[in-house]
Design goal:
The complex is a heterodimer of chains A (276) and B (290). In chain A, helix 5 packs parallel to helix 8, helix 6 packs across helix 8 and helix 9 runs antiparallel to helix 10. Chain A contains 14 helices and no strands. Chain A is globular, with a radius of gyration of 24 Å. With 276 residues, chain A is mostly helical. Chain A folds into 2 domains: 56 residues, no CATH class; 204 residues, Orthogonal Bundle (MetI-like fold), CATH 1.10.3720. Chain B contains 13 helices and 2 strands. Chain B has 290 residues and is mostly helical. In chain B, 75% of the residues lie in helices and 1% in strands. In chain B, strands 1-2 form a two-stranded antiparallel ribbon. Chains A and B meet through helix 1, helix 5, helix 6, helix 7 and helix 8 of A and helix 1, helix 3, helix 4, helix 5 and helix 6 of B. Chain A: Belongs to the binding-protein-dependent transport system permease family. Chain A: InterPro entries: BP-dep_ABC_trans_perm, MetI-like, MetI-like_sf.
Chain lengths: 276, 290
């Protein structure tokens, strides 16, 4: 008896959850469908859209007319580049703070976090002028620098929360056995830290890929990543729904897949360890 | 225990990160402060001069500033209200056992990974466009007049779009918090005859309050800086109907080339963000001790 009730309850929850899930996911599903339609069909009523022919036309057009791949490459270079450089700077810092904490370690961490609270628009003018004078406007180098710096606090924090969970005794044992600092890092710490570093990397690539304040303000054409490329569809000419859908699908697909793998780390990274 | 040697090494390892962040913070901040006291327009180079508080006076008495401030509060408040309430309900739903949990979770989280320019343009064109959008088709089907969301209710439409992006974040965090709730405590309460409502109110809400605070604070930081969604949908219009503080300062500094005025606005934005930041830092700091 109790079991039947549970099953009925489970069925009701299942229906409700799926309905809500599909409703939330629907816009993404819809652009996926539109991206395989011709421009003429993409603006028709939903029934006509679903029954019309499927085509890869829009994907071709997006690549040929607007050099989609270059923007894609810019996005990859910016997000991966800034993440790798960020990690090179952050790993030693987080390691030191987790394993050799001093009196002021906590203050340093909190201060780093506070730089993240600075609203970007508050420093937009000086950064823009500095970039203009150094010739960094619309350059990949300039954007990699900015993206590295805005995400550095998150990288350090995430790594710190991971490193803190590694038992210090193991490091002490290695030290007692005569391991040098270099060997300690290379052979003891690194293997244990790799999962944490990997998830930090994943989350940071996602954040950098979707960053849409600096990438929109500091690029024009040459270094424009996908965020800026898609923004160019805000003042289109003629029919463009299928093309916008195709470009959008390609812009979000890689990050959507990565995101699904990093759900758990996302919570931790974005709340600076406050919710695990 | 840490030796003298390892302390020195630790300091060396931290310093690049500290120096970089210090430079990133101090240099532009000092420049913004300095510019905010200058009459400085990029269209009139070489005409810079010290003007004291003039930029602030102009910025703070500009009717556009009050519109933008109001819009910023509505945008942040509206999105918070929708995402926190919606996120709590959704987390409670997804926390129940049901078939296909993994798939539904993936679908619910997905919007968070969509870049802001894509989600704004997709909602603007494929859904809210009165002629070709899905809502327009639907209105037509029902025999109603199509509604032009972005020109007739621009701010509400943007609040809706941004809520769609942030609902997954709130849900995910609240769900994580719910799952760390002690199940035995709930069962014990149930056996003692506590109703579902009082279990929710006396056990779940106190347990979730911390996560909700975190959601509110972190979202506020990001929501104060909403920019791309406004740029590609309404460009702040009509008039200033959907201009927030970030967008206003962007217009002033990069479209009107008024560096002095834009910088004064930037300082005001920094002060406002700091008020929120202080609360957030306290929360996270407490957690660090625990």
């Amino acid at each position: 008896m109790a079991r039947a009730v549970t099953n009925r309850r489970k069925a009701i929850v299942t229906v409700a959850a799926w309905l809500v899930g599909i409703a939330i996911f629907f816009p993404i599903l819809w652009i996926l469908i539109l991206s395989f339609k011709s421009e003429g069909d993409a603006i028709k009523t939903p029934i006509e859209v679903l029954t019309s022919n499927w085509t890869l036309e829009s994907y071709h057009t997006v690549q040929e007319r607007s050099d989609y791949f270059r923007h894609f490459l810019n996005s990859v270079i910016l997000s991966v580049g800034s993440t790798v450089i960020g990690l090179i700077i952050a790993v030693p810092a987080a390691w030191a703070m987790a394993f050799v904490p001093g009196k002021r370690t906590k203050d340093v961490l909190m201060w780093m976090l506070s730089t993240k609270m600075l609203p970007p628009v508050g420093v937009l003018v000086p950064i823009y002028l500095i970039f203009r004078d150094l010739g960094l406007l619309d350059s990949r180098v300039g954007l990699v620098i900015v993206l590295t710096l805005i995400n550095l606090p998150i990288i350090i924090w995430m790594l710190y929360t991971y490193f803190r969970e590694i038992p210090g005794e193991i490091l002490e044992a290695a030290r007692m056995d005569g391991a040098s600092l270099k060997n300690e890092i290379l052979y003891v710490l690194t293997p244990m830290a790799v999962p944490g570093i990997a998830s930090t990397m994943l989350l940071n690539i996602i954040l950098a890929w979707n960053e849409a304040f600096w990438t929109l303000n500091l690029t024009a054409a040459k270094a424009a990543p996908l965020t800026a490329f898609i923004a160019s569809y805000s003042s289109p000419e003629g029919l463009f729904y299928a093309k916008l859908s195709a470009a959008s699908t390609m812009a979000i697909a890689p990050i959507l897949i990565m995101g699904w793998f990093s759900q758990k780390q996302l919570v931790r990274g974005l709340t600076f360890g406050a919710v695990k | 225990m840490a030796t003298q040697h390892s302390r020195a090494a630790a300091r060396l390892m931290i310093s690049p990160a500290v120096l970089l962040l210090l430079g990133w913070m101090i240099v532009p901040l000092v420049m913004t402060l300095y510019f905010s006291f200058l009459r400085y327009n990029l269209l009139m180079p070489g005409m810079e001069e010290f003007t004291g508080w003039t930029n602030y006076r102009f910025f703070l008495t500009d009717p556009a500033f009050f519109d933008a401030l109001g819009n910023t509060l509505l945008l942040v408040g509206g999105v918070l209200l929708i995402t926190v309430i919606g996120g709590t309900l959704l987390a409670l739903l997804l926390d129940q056992p049901f078939w296909g949990q993994g798939v539904v979770r993936i679908m619910v989280i997905a919007p968070f990974f969509v870049m802001p320019t894509v989600s704004a343009l997709v909602w603007k064109n494929m859904f809210m466009n009165p002629v070709n959008g899905l809502f327009g088709h639907f209105a037509h089907f029902l025999g109603l007049e199509p509604y032009d969301f972005l020109s007739q209710a621009p701010l509400a439409s943007i609040i809706f779009i941004v809520s769609w992006q942030w609902l997954p974040f709130a849900t995910l965090i609240l769900l994580t918090a719910l799952q760390s709730l002690d199940q035995e405590q709930l069962e014990a309460a149930e056996m003692d005859g506590a109703s579902a409502l009082s279990r929710f109110y006396y056990i779940m809400v106190p347990h979730l309050s911390r996560a909700i605070t975190v959601v509110i604070l972190i979202q506020t930081i990001f929501l104060l800086s909403i920019f791309a969604e406004i740029l590609v949908t309404t460009a702040g219009g009509p008039g200033t109907a959907s201009t927030n503080l970030t967008y206003l300062i962007y217009v002033q500094s990069l479209l009107q080339f008024d560096v002095g005025g834009g910088s004064a606005g930037g300082v005001v934005a920094i002060i406002l963000a700091n008020i929120v930041a202080i609360f957030l830092m306290r929360m996270i700091g407490k957690n660090l001790d625990a």
